[in-house]
Amino acid sequence: MEVAKVVYQASAQFPANEKFGFTSQINRSAVSIPSNIAEGAGRGSNKEFIQFLNIALGSAFELETQLLLANSFGFMNDLKLKELVERLQKIQRMIDGFKKRLKSVD
């Protein structure tokens, strides 16, 4: 959830004409990560939880791509990009590890 908050803060600095396009898309990706983890946690089986973790992982990779694009468009500086990508990559590894753990207990 912290990454979503930081992404929202960073995207607030994007050009106003991107509000309903790129800014909206990047924010949806950021919110999708914790939302899918939470929804999956409420499911009745590890198999269902893993499916939602897969969706969250996909959103994390989508967000990473969007952050790289934001930087290339000049919407985000290199330092902010580096900070966010490092956080996202850590989340990606955590989700992947959690999936492996869930699969091992089935």
Average of per-residue pLDDT values: 95
Strand content: under 5%
Number of separate structural domains: 1
**Percentage of residues in helical conformation:** over 70%
- Gross geometry: elongated
Largest sheet: none
Q: In words, what does this structure look like?
A:
There is one protein chain. By secondary structure, the protein is mainly α. The protein has one domain (2-105): de novo design (two linked rop proteins), CATH 1.20.1440.60. The chain has four helices and no strands.
Defining key terms:
about 110 residues; mainly alpha; de novo design (two linked rop proteins); about 80% helix
Task: Show the helix and strand layout.
Elements: H1 2-11, H2 22-41, H3 46-72, H4 78-105
Helix pairs in contact: 1-2, 1-4, 2-3, 3-4
Précis, in short:
By secondary structure, the chain is mainly alpha-helical. It has helices at 2-11, 22-41, 46-72, 78-105.
